[in-house]
Amino acid sequence: MSDLNLLIALTVEERSDLVKMGNKSRAFCTSALAVAEQHAGLMPRDFDYAAFRQDHAALDALRPRADRLAHLMQRVADTELALGSDLMNAALEVYAVIKVAGKDKGVDDARRELAARFSRRSQASVPGTVTNG
What we know:
This protein has helices at about 10-15, 25-40, 50-100, 110-115. With about 130 residues, it is mainly alpha-helical. It starts with 11 loop residues before the first helix and ends in an 18-residue tail after the last helix. The protein has 2 domains: about 25-95; about 100-133, no CATH class.
C-alpha cells in the first residue's frame, strides 16, 4: 500500500451504507479468512479468495500509516491551538494596554476596532462591525 492513488473517497451516503468494522471485528475477519481457506469446499464457487486476502493485506498495511497520520494530525491540532492561544494572549495584552494607556493618545479608533471583538450586539445592528470569534 505505497501508492496514495489507491486511496478512495466516499460520499456521505456511501459511508453510511457500508458495514463498519470495529476493533473487535479485526480478529473475526482474520479468522473468517482462515476458515474460508481451510473449508474452501463449503464456500460458493464465485467466492473471491484473492480479493479477501488482498483487502486483508491492504488494511493491515494501511492501519499503521493511518495511526501515524492520526498522531500527526493531533500534533497539528495541538500546535494550532497553542499558536492561537499565544496570539490571543498577545492581542488581549495589546487591547488591555490600549484601553488603559491609550486614552487621549489618538488610538480611539483602534480601541473601538479591538473592542468590537467583545461586542454583544449582532453584526446586523452595528454596520461595519465584524464580530467573528
